[in-house]
Design brief:
This protein is mainly alpha-helical and 255 residues long. It is 59% helix and 0% strand. The chain is built from 15 helices and no strands. The longest helix is centred in the last third of the chain and has 19 residues.
């Protein structure tokens, strides 16, 4: 926390963190919304800058697509990226919360999705987080990488080598953006492939690593989980170099 922050902001930050630690995410969000209502969006942005990524994550992952959240509307690409790369700590195998919060924030009305995607890619663990997002669509992402479409019937089942992936990275699109503008996984994959192909390829490689780990079977997977907490080694495929400082500095989590 900044020493020159207003005392009421410091008190709100402490209250928000206490509520999150107690599992009262709704109460924490309400406190932040009340600040925006009384002091304006600028005051809320100041407070968000001082909250650790794990606390911002606790709030934004509890998205509700039936209503807009002021926090989701104001969180910056950098803040969002730092939250996304630690979302795996929740061990949500369905990835429902991850996909929901990613879609609701990067496709918000005033946002440039690539600012958020690039910020995620710039962090260690970024391509792994994106692979988690696409985990249930692995076959169709492979088809898109090979053929430029999401239709598996267009694919002969072969898997492009890493060299071939990079060779085809700048191929002309077979689909128009409007054809996949669903504000969901298809559009996200399309943007990645044609606006940040390096990050797209890294994500595909991590997806393959995860698929291989899964194919090894539950018994070996359980052994691996004990050794490395279930994380896939992505040192050779992850372009990010920056580790979220707040997570390193504070190992205690509200998760």
């Amino acid at each position: 926390m900044e020493e020159n922050a207003p005392m009421n902001h410091l008190a709100l930050i402490e209250k928000t963190q206490s509520l999150i630690a107690a599992g009262d995410i709704v109460g924490a969000e309400s406190a932040l919304v009340e600040l925006a209502d009384t002091e304006g969006d600028g005051a809320l942005m100041v407070v968000l800058e001082q909250l650790p990524p794990k606390d911002i994550l606790a709030v934004i992952r509890e998205y509700d697509n039936s209503k807009e959240s002021i926090i989701n509307l104001l969180v910056t690409p950098e803040q969002f990226a730092r939250a996304v790369v630690i979302e795996k700590q929740y061990k949500d195998l369905t990835r429902t919360h991850l996909r929901g919060m990613v879609n609701s924030i990067i496709f918000r009305e005033d946002a440039d999705p690539m600012e958020f995607l690039n910020a995620i890619g710039d962090l260690e663990g970024g391509s792994e987080a994106l692979a988690d997002y696409f985990s249930e669509k692995w076959a169709r992402i492979e088809s898109f990488a090979r053929t430029g479409t999401f239709d598996a019937s267009d694919d002969d089942g072969q898997v492009l080598s890493e060299t071939a992936l990079y060779s085809s990275a700048y191929a002309s699109p077979r689909l128009e953006h409007d054809e996949v503008a669903d504000q969901d996984w298809m559009e996200l994959a399309y943007l990645l492939r044609y606006q940040n192909p390096d990050l797209f390829i890294e994500t595909v490689l991590v997806l393959r690593a995860k698929a291989r780990a899964h194919d090894l079977g539950d018994e070996e997977e359980d052994t691996t989980a004990e050794e490395d907490d279930g994380k896939v080694e992505t040192a050779n495929t992850d372009r990010g170099q920056a580790t979220p400082a707040a997570l390193e500095a504070d190992e205690e989590s509200a998760i």
